[in-house]
Specification:
Elements: H1 3-8, E1 12-13, E2 20-22, H2 25-37, E3 41-48, E4 52-59, E5 64-71, E6 76-78, H3 87-98, E7 101-103, E8 119-120, E9 128-129, E10 148-152, E11 164-170, E12 173-180, H4 188-192, H5 197-204, H6 212-226, H7 233-261, H8 265-286, E13 295-296, E14 299-300, H9 306-332, H10 334-340, H11 348-354, H12 358-362, H13 394-417, E15 433-440, E16 445-453, E17 456-463, H14 470-477, H15 485-492, H16 496-500
Parallel strand pairs: 2-5, 6-7
Antiparallel strand pairs: 1-2, 3-4, 4-5, 8-9, 10-11, 11-12, 13-14, 15-16, 16-17
Helix pairs in contact: 5-6, 6-7, 7-8, 7-13, 7-15, 8-9, 9-13, 14-15
């Protein structure tokens, strides 16, 4: 049987918008083996609770989604990482937080747990005191003549998040890069327990601050799905306005930073200036530069006034007025384009094995975008265009971002001109149910899962797109020189905090 058939034949538990199929351990093992040859199912997220391991899969042929679970009866479950390499980081996280061990996993090293937690595993039904002394991190070995290692971080020279990068190099050429994160672990999933969706939304909004609108929207969608309700049309449109503003601001800032790493300060200064103008427009429209806590379960916290709409239009006009000159400056500067092209290549074959979303995926042949599939209001009435490339280098990732800025501006004009009237929020009913929500952040697809009991969160998982993109940065940097790492790293701009939970 195919992996899809094995999942659909399993008993279904009530969940929204897709039923949760509970596979027996034996059937889950069969499914994991079937995935080795079944290339139509992409892994989008993987997580656990105290008794089960869960996986969300996207069927690229049927264009639908499958929600599968397996009870962990003996502390073990069959690993998915032999068939889906992107599962490896999820499996390490699941073991650290819940204590469920993946059998035959490709990587069994600790991930979030650096050995300093007082109780482990902290999310298990019965955590035990941690009496062991912390051990040094274990890194993969690199084989070759005259290799040397460069250790960078977790504390960096710039004002950035903490992460450790271990380079194995032959001269200036990078043979292997291994990323170690977890320094920003906040215990978010544990903090969500016992909270109402309205209170819990504040934790989701702070999982990764540069994607606060997108994570807040995914969390709200999950809560609304569990409650079998939907935000008012005006609220849905305002969420989309904020989401596209967030996308533009982050793309502007990142492209400017990439230009800075390529030592082209003129382009850097103009993109950074436009980002600042955008953030000021967001503050004028929604009361906060990053619009944090503006999206809430049931709707939005603040309406958009006519003056706020005018502020947004003014910023969009400013960007569009300068846009042709900036694009020409990028295209006509041979030394800049030379640094971008053929640097940090993520080939489409490798990308397909991890199914990354966002500009990382679209620059390497992946077409996934949650605004189109599975979609949600108001994007279901908008024709969202996308740019794709098979080049997979820094230049391709920049060009996808440049296109997305112009497309977001187009969408914003439509959204603002066709903004529905009516209420901006509703009160969610008190239910015991579970739901999955999603949003297309500037990095890619974000997935949130909530289980509510008596209206309060009993279990949750918040999945940033960086879970499937960090490993691909490690792959893309191989064969490049050390001096090009900042350029490659910024072209991905994965979130540290988003995967540290």
């Amino acid at each position: 049987m195919t992996a899809r058939a094995l999942i659909l034949d399993a008993p279904a538990m009530q969940a929204q918008p897709w039923p949760r199929h509970v596979l027996s351990p034996e059937t889950w093992t069969q499914m994991s083996r079937a995935l080795i040859t079944d290339t139509t199912l992409d892994l989008r997220a993987m997580w656990a609770d105290t008794t089960h391991v869960h996986a969300l899969l996207h069927d690229t042929e049927a264009a639908d989604f499958l929600f599968a679970s397996v009870p962990v009866e003996t502390g073990l479950y069959a690993a998915l990482s032999p068939a889906r390499p992107g599962a490896a980081w999820f499996e390490r996280m699941i073991r650290d937080l819940w204590g469920h061990h993946p059998a035959d996993a490709t990587d069994t090293r600790p991930w979030l747990d650096h050995g300093h937690w007082t109780a482990t595993p902290p999310m298990a039904a019965r955590p035990l005191p941690n009496l062991a002394a912390p051990e040094p991190a274990e890194f993969l070995t690199s084989v070759g003549d005259d290799l040397h290692h460069i250790a960078v971080g977790p504390v960096h020279a710039g004002i950035i998040e903490p992460g450790h990068f271990r380079f194995a190099c032959s001269g200036e050429t990078i043979v292997r890069l291994e990323v170690r994160l977890g320094y920003l672990h906040k215990g978010t999933l544990g903090l969500l327990r016992g909270k109402s969706p309205r209170v819990g939304a504040r934790f989701a909004a702070r999982l990764s601050g540069d994607s606060t609108v997108a994570h807040s929207t995914a969390f709200a969608h999950a809560a609304e799905a569990a409650c079998a309700t939907a935000a008012p049309p005006r609220a849905a449109s305002l969420r989309a306005v904020m989401g596209e503003l967030e996308r533009i601001a982050n793309h502007l800032g990142d492209i400017g930073a990439i230009a800075g790493d390529a030592v082209f300060p003129l382009l850097q200064s103009r993109f950074v200036w436009l980002r600042e103008a955008m953030l000021r427009g967001c503050a004028a429209a929604f009361g906060h530069r990053q619009m944090m806590d503006a999206v809430i379960p049931g709707g939005v916290a603040q309406d958009l006034t006519q003056d706020g709409s005018t502020s947004i239009h003014d910023v969009l006009n400013t960007i569009q007025a300068e846009w042709p000159r900036l694009l020409a400056l990028y295209d006509d500067t041979a030394s800049l384009v030379d640094r971008m092209q053929t640097t940090g290549i993520l080939d489409p074959t490798t990308a397909a094995r991890f199914a990354p979303g966002g500009f990382v995926g679209r620059a390497s042949g992946q077409a996934f975008d949650t605004r189109r599939n599975p979609g949600h209001a108001p994007y279901d009435r908008l024709d969202v265009a996308a740019a794709f490339s098979d080049a997979g280098d820094v230049d391709a990732r920049v060009r996808v971002r440049l296109f997305e800025i112009t497309e977001s501006i187009r969408l914003l004009r439509i959204l603002l001109d066709e903004l529905p009237t009516g209420p901006i929020a509703l009160t969610l009913p008190i239910v015991s149910a579970e739901g999955i929500g999603w949003a297309e952040g500037f990095r890619g697809d974000i997935w949130h899962w909530l289980r509510l009991e008596g209206g309060l969160v009993s279990h949750a998982f918040l999945c940033d797109p960086s879970w499937r993109q960090w490993p691909l940065l490690q792959a893309a940097i191989e064969g490049n020189i050390v001096a090009d790492f900042p350029l490659c790293n910024k072209s991905f701009n994965c979130s540290y905090s988003g995967v540290d939970l």
